Fold:
Amino acid sequence: MFKPSRILVPTDMSEHSDKAVRHAFDIARFYNSEVFLLHVIQDPIQQCTIDYCISADMVTQFQQQMLESTRRGMRTQLAKFPSIDPKEITTDIKTGVPHEEILNEAEERKIDLIVLSSLGSTGISKYTMGSVARHVLRGAKCSVLLAK
Structure:
């Protein structure tokens, strides 16, 4: 019987991700599993455009603000679930291509179950399986649960 001990929940902090978080914690309670919440910042700040550059100090400042905003967003998401103790969760923020970072995190932490939303958070992707979910399904070496 499959008994996950380490569960990774990638989040974009949308309502769809809330469903994945809920499913992950239901499973974690049942199997007494560790839960890892991950957010990937996809578009890092570009220092230069065609004819204008911002200073390295400004880029660093923007990155720090983005990280703090993401931390607040993750705390706000977890606060929606009063039965979940945030101290029992390991949270992480990465920068890069979301599906690549999710798969890397799963390998590094020896995850045996990834729980993620099957739907994107914007535009037409709200109605189709998201490309991140599709790439994670294809590349994962562990079980993947898509929350609908």
